[in-house]
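RECORD TYPE: inverse folding
INPUT: structure tokens
STRUCTURE:
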């Protein structure tokens, strides 16, 4: 049996895919397909552009950012910045405020004792981001709030 260096396996695999791509790329082109893109109605973002991926709100990235999380789930929650600066628990009906949140931050919020599907509602006033956390029906929920250096706030 011949032993090959680990990086050689990637080379062989890429070579196989390159051959497949070359075969597929010689296929005749088809007319483009128009795919409807859902538009979010009533978005609070003032810089809305058509497209499916829109921020839920915006802040001024040049001013201090404060985030308050209100727990309306009925479960104990844990929250924190992915930078590890702030980790805390929030009791049902309680709230927690994170001061001076840096831009390019992700804030995660999870149920502690029970797998719960969470829904985040965002409201921004004077660079104060208010996050109301409730439970939601379904199989997938919100996991993180992303504040970008442009001031755009996304929910993942």
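DESIGNED SEQUENCE:
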């Amino acid at each position: 049996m011949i032993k090959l260096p680990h990086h050689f396996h990637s080379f062989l695999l890429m070579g196989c895919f390159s051959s497949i791509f070359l075969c597929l790329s010689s296929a005749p082109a088809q007319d483009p397909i128009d795919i409807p893109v859902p538009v979010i109605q009533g978005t609070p973002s003032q810089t809305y552009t058509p497209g499916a991926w829109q921020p839920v709100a915006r802040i001024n990235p040049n001013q201090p950012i404060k985030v308050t999380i209100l727990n309306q789930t009925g479960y104990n929650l844990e929250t924190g910045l992915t930078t590890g600066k702030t980790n805390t628990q929030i009791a049902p009906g309680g709230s927690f405020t994170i001061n001076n949140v840096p831009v390019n931050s992700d804030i995660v919020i999870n149920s502690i004792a029970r797998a719960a599907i969470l829904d985040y509602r965002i409201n921004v006033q004077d660079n104060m981001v208010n996050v109301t956390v409730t439970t939601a029906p379904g199989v997938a929920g919100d996991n993180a709030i992303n504040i970008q250096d442009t001031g755009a706030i996304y929910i993942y």
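NOTES: The helical segments are 6-25.
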